């Protein structure tokens, strides 16, 4: 669940996830609710469920004239609103700083982004800061619908998993006659450090 506000070239956002994690490993969630395996599995599976950490974001878009390359500088912070003992949070604050460049060419907009993540270390664990990057493009396929395809990379946050490589495919479409927008996505993992597959749907309301 989240909210976003645009004020000129500035965009502010806030979100909080509700999660259900079942595993025999020790898993925390990092910035953007990314699962981080910090200890290998042993014993029986256990389930942790509840609200995770709040993530706040702010970005600024630079574009002098329409048609120029659009540069977006963004920062996010994950606040430990869920306790470390919940099994849903590291109990520490995470940060990220990133930049994305987008160039609109008719109905297609290729982009590339680079982000550096600073992960707080929970007691007894030493998480690794590192880069995340993506490259892809969006395409306007109708007056209401946009498609998105991209490749994502992220450095592993612990030595127990490999770096993540995955493909992403998504869409966003306005519902006719309403201020509602439906967004969906799916991913396919290209490495053992990424989920084999994932997907989701979101409904947003414009005020």
Characteristics:
two-stranded antiparallel ribbon, 11-stranded antiparallel β-sheet, 207 residues, Porin, mainly beta
Describe the SSE topology.
Layout: E1 2-7, E2 10-15, E3 18-23, E4 26-29, E5 35-39, E6 46-51, E7 54-62, E8 70-79, E9 94-102, E10 108-118, E11 130-140, E12 145-154, E13 164-174, E14 180-189, E15 197-205
Antiparallel strand pairs: 1-2, 2-7, 3-6, 4-5, 7-8, 8-9, 9-10, 10-11, 11-12, 12-13, 13-14, 14-15
Notes on the protein architecture:
By secondary structure, the chain is mainly β. It has one domain: Porin (Beta Barrel), CATH 2.40.160. Helices cover 0% and strands 59% of the residues. It has no helices and 15 strands. The protein has strands spanning 2-7, 10-15, 18-23, 26-29, 35-39, 46-51, 54-62, 70-79, 94-102, 108-118, 130-140, 145-154, 164-174, 180-189, 197-205. An eleven-stranded antiparallel β-sheet has the order 1-2-7-8-9-10-11-12-13-14-15, with no helix packed on it. The protein starts with a strand and ends with a strand.
Beta-strand segment tally: 15
Number of helices: 0
For the record, the CATH class is Mainly Beta
Q: How much β-strand is present in the residues? A: over 45%
**Unreliable stretches:** none
One letter per element, helices H and strands E, the order comes to: EEEEEEEEEEEEEEE
* End-to-end gap: 16 Å
Based on the structure given, which CATH architecture is correct? Beta Barrel
Fraction in helix: under 10%
- Physical arrangement of strands within the biggest beta sheet: 1-2-7-8-9-10-11-12-13-14-15
Largest sheet: 11 strands, antiparallel
């Amino acid at each position: 669940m989240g909210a976003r506000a645009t004020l000129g070239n500035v965009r502010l956002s806030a979100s909080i996830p509700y999660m259900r994690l079942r595993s025999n490993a020790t898993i925390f969630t990092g910035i953007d609710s990314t699962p981080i395996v910090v200890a290998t599995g042993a014993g029986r599976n256990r389930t942790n469920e509840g609200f995770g950490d709040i993530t706040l974001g702010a970005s600024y878009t630079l574009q002098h004239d329409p048609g120029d390359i659009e540069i977006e500088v963004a920062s996010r912070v994950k606040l430990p609103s869920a306790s470390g003992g919940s099994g849903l949070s590291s109990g520490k604050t995470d940060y990220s700083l990133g930049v994305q460049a987008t160039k609109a060419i008719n109905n297609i907009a290729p982009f590339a982004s680079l982000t550096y993540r600073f992960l707080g270390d929970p007691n007894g664990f030493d998480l690794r800061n590192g880069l995340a990057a993506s490259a892809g493009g969006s395409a306007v396929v109708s007056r209401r619908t946009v498609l998105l395809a991209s490749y994502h990379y992220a450095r592993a946050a612990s030595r127990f998993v490999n770096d993540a490589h995955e493909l992403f495919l998504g869409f966003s479409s306005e519902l006719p006659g309403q201020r509602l927008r439906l967004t969906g996505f799916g991913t396919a993992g290209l490495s053992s450090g990424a989920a084999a597959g994932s997907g989701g749907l979101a409904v947003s309301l414009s005020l």
